[in-house]
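During data preparation, we tokenized the protein backbone, and the record follows.
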Amino acid sequence: MLVTAAYLCVLTSLAVFGLHRLHLVWLAWRHEEGPAPPAPSSWPRVTVQLPLYNEAAVARRLIEAVSALDYPADLLEVQVLDDSSDETQAIVADAVSRAAARGLRIRHVRRPTRSGYKAGALAHGLQTAEGELIAIFDADFVPAPDFLRRTVPWFQERELGLVQGCWTHLNRDASSLTRLQALALDAHFRVEQAARSRSGRFFNFNGTAGVWRREAIEAAGGWASDTITEDLDLSLRSQLCGWRFRFLEGVEVPSELPEDLAAFRAQQRRWTRGSGQTARKLLGHVWRTPGVPLRARVEATFQLLLNAAYPLSLLLALLTVPLVLAERTELLALQWALFALATASVTLFYVASQAHRGARGLLAGLRDTPLLFACGLGLSLSNGLAFLRGLGGGRADFVRTPKRGDASARYRIPANAGFGVAELGLGLYACAGLGWSLWRGLPWAAPFLALIALGFLAVGLGTLWPSEPAPLELEDHLLLAVDDDRDPTHRAAEGEELGHGEVPVAERVPVA
């Protein structure tokens, strides 16, 4: 009885999250983006910030892309906020020198310490930035030349604080892992962000490929490093101050997806734990701040707590097997109704995000959605624990996500064998439940148990025996000699002087 009650409570909670996804699909369909505004009579001054940390594989490509931005030269400034402690320093210095020789106003900004990490670098650059608008690009993004021409005109709306572009993917079809990541991110941008933006609800800056009004950053208190999702944190604080945000689906910015499972897991844990930290920090403010529309409060709450689906999914996986063993079939209709509500709505959410790719995209979405469910279940242990730890506060590891160009080199994140073993155990646990259900003639549980088994076994095996990603051939190499004898897992203390010591794989950020 206790297992059945807990199972139904978890399934009901997941069904609520599924209904929310269905609501977002409806909002995205109901509201249109609207026509682009005309070009302003006078273009504002723009500062482009490029926060970098040991990005030897992609730094030059980013600087060259930004150098090609089509914007009045006397109104454009570029800051390369370089916290690197490896050969990236020399690559950046050379690329900046070449760009400056072509007439671009560009500066190579170095700090004495990495205090505050990315948030600290952005805040440091803001102190000397000349622009009233601040565009931000991470190292693995490649903005098109017309990016500023298409985003800046929207700031003629005086209350607009941010314009966010839409991520696309340079290596979408590199592997099954990148294909599933692309599907998940398409749903986030083309459904979630589009629905929230068009309907006047809160949504978040994605950390890159966006343009801020400087005044909106400063009015919210500036960048803070007390969470590892500084973008989500600042976004909510700024919107609680009354600034509006706009997402532009048509302004696409290509980027790289992690091709290594360990890198992907670390990225997901960082995002998930950071959302828990931000929920702990700001959820109360969302409901206490006067003047915020109810729809914005509700959507912000779902946004902050959405990753609670991971521990709930883990609980569901754990509870399904004893429910099968108990052969409780009297609640079968209710279980299937809730399960269908939780899964069918999310399936529509993912498939709808592929509408821009035409019929072939929709069919590919239908094909890949079950695999994405399995992948989410397989990551539910590590991500679920990360979210709960974020809610609990404390210190958090910041793990740099390797790019394709260096994923097999010294920056590669070591596999977490503990998680791999635990995930294999959970996969075998689900296999045992699957075998029992088929032997006892209880096929109602077989599809879900098969997904659980597939997800945990695939993630566990991929963690313990990772495949080698294919290296990316760079168009231009400027790589200095690297001492391969240095320990790549060395951790640097916050405040270590740049240029001394090896690149840390993980950093710690204090959380209030």
User: Anything to note?
Assistant: The mean pLDDT is 87. The radius of gyration is 23 Å.
